[in-house]
Amino acid sequence: MAPEKLTGKVEYKENLAGNNYLVRIGFDKKVRFIPGQYASLKVNDEGIRRSYSVASLPNENVIDLLVDVTPLGVGSKYVLGLKVGDDVEVLAFLGRFTVDPLLLLTAKHLLFLATGTGIAPFKPMIEDLLYRKHFTNEVRLIWGMRHEKELYWLKEMDNINRDFDNFKHDIVISKPTKDWPGFVGHVDTVVNQLEQDWTETLVYLCGAPDMIVEMEMNLKDKGVPGTSIFYEKYF
Ligand SMILES: Cc1cc2nc3c(=O)[nH]c(=O)nc-3n(C[C@H](O)[C@H](O)[C@H](O)COP(=O)(O)OP(=O)(O)OC[C@H]3O[C@@H](n4cnc5c(N)ncnc54)[C@H](O)[C@@H]3O)c2cc1C
């Protein structure tokens, strides 16, 4: 469907952890999109826009956005200032960073690699695959963050783990405290420990452009075909 200008209202806003905010926008009609797509939010009166992946499943008339306000640019400041009840304008829905159902017929492994809020589109993409499409082969999420105090959605990921044996997730922290019990480093730290048939793996990458460029090379070296690598760069 062609993107359209939609006016919505902020229904809910929460500081999830660190500089990461969840903003729920309600519309007066049902909105249709494919998990993985993004909305372009108007962030000032001059019509400047910033892109934010939809962080929720298609579900009637609301969408969630997950925003890291660390850059403190015009988009971050706009989101920081938003209050419940405010009107917002989005151009939606955009992007082709979605899972092609035809590829699921042959894929043995689906690997989702995120840094920071790059996890935003992965939550609905993974929930859609498991709860709605009943995909039964391996789905693995690896999420890289700088500090453990910035983590969120841990319960949500544990719930998916509880519901599906074929879902696994790992978190890797690049600047951990001494008490962090998990992986230390970047997403490649975990990816390099995986043993699987890389030629039968679909990989979705989202977040920092540097991670995406490096991981694309790394994955191709392992044998993942270029046509099986998909990415959304947050620049
Ligand atoms: C398709 C797409 C989807 C996106 N989805 C999301 C999303 O779901 N959640 C989200 O938080 N962001 C997302 N982004 C990034 C978002 O659109 C903005 O680029 C980002 O929030 C910065 O906007 P800003 O106006 O605050 O900063 P800007 O005014 O654009 O930049 C301010 C300064 O911060 C630097 N900067 C820009 N981005 C970052 C960053 N990520 N980390 C550190 N420094 C940075 C810039 O180089 C500049 O110096 C997405 C980007 C794209 C292209």
TrEMBL record:
FAD-binding FR-type domain sequence ranges: 3-100
Domain of life the protein comes from: Bacteria
Coiled-coil residue windows: none
InterPro entries linked: Cbr1-like_FAD-bd_dom, FAD-bd_FR_type, Flavoprot_Pyr_Nucl_cyt_Rdtase, FNR_nucleotide-bd, MRET, OxRdtase_FAD/NAD-bd, Riboflavin_synthase-like_b-brl
Listed Gene3D superfamilies: Nucleotide-binding domain of ferredoxin-NADP reductase (FNR) module (3.40.50.80), Translation factors (2.40.30.10)
Species this protein is from: Candidatus Collierbacteria bacterium GW2011_GWC2_44_18
Protein name, UniProt field: FAD-binding FR-type domain-containing protein
Molecular function as annotated in GO: oxidoreductase activity
